Amino acid sequence: MNPALPKDYKLDIPRKGGVKPLAYYKTKRVTINLFIHLFLLTVAVTCIFPLLWMVSSSLKTQEAIFRDTSLLPKVFHFENYYLAWMEGGFGRYFLNSIFYTVSVVLGIVIISSLAAYAFSRFRFPGRNIIFFMFVAAMMIPIPGSFVPLYVLLNKLHLRNTAFGYILCMINVGLSTSIFLLKTFFDKMPKELEDAARIDGCSKLGIWWNVVLPLSKPVLAVVVVFNALNVWNEYVLALIIFDSRPLMPLQVALTTFQGEFITRYPLLMAGLTITALPIIIVYLLMQKYIIKGVTAGAIVG
User: Where are the domains of the chain?
Assistant: First the structure.
């Protein structure tokens, strides 16, 4: 026995089932991380593979799509994109979709941010009831509102007009956007607004100079979510529009789907052209979206 230790000292040796060695916890952590990464990798592959197959098919011929199962075409047919653009009349529809998307997203951001700020900061009769009505509207599927929207636009003489379609799409995205922004504004420190009020800012000035700049992460989510919704809308456009020149880009894709045959190379090329703007928007706002997800409760 070590003479430096007292006589009555007893060495506490862990019994079986007691404290486990450090290697056990390291192995456990590595194993759990391995399974998590394998799961995430599987999800990523299932999401990316259809996009890769779409791009690959857009560069093949009609016969090669069914015969050649590889993702890398043997011969690249870039002329499919030119044919899809010219035969589908993508130029007119592309400009229409850009105009509708920008107008709707801008309208939703302005209206929903003002409404969410009012619900978060102002006290007025019926505030909670009106907010819960907006939340309840999120549970109504979009097709469930087609009939009332059609009747309302007919009475207002706005059917088959771009303005009527923009109003409908703004109405579709308002509930979710107000809910997201109001939740974010509730966590925003009021001291920042008090400081702006002392400097002489009005309520609109505080909303413009303080609230909106601090809301970039959640605004990025609102922009991407609604831009994707407007860009991909097809059924509502068919209901509202009678004039084909007013139709959005999704209508041009039906050009390659005939009664007896579908021109898959041109259809895949058209889908690639259609998906490209949304991918670019997401990449440009990716920083703010990730910031909003990872730092959701941290404001300012």
Answer: 22-67, 79-294
- Which residue has tokens 């097709």? 143
Is 117 in contact with 207 (CB distance < 8 Å)? yes
Q: Which fold has domain 79-294?
A: MetI-like fold (1.10.3720)
Would you say 100 and 166 are in contact if contact means Cβ atoms under 8 Å apart? Answer: yes
pLDDT tens per residue, the chain (300 residues)?
A: 455 555 555 555 555 555 667 787 888 888 999 999 999 999 999 989 999 999 999 999 988 888 888 888 888 999 999 988 888 888 888 899 999 999 999 999 999 999 999 999 888 888 889 888 888 888 888 778 888 888 999 999 999 999 999 999 998 889 889 998 998 898 888 888 888 888 888 888 899 988 998 888 889 889 988 999 999 888 888 889 988 889 898 887 887 877 667 888 888 998 899 888 888 888 888 777 776 655 444 444
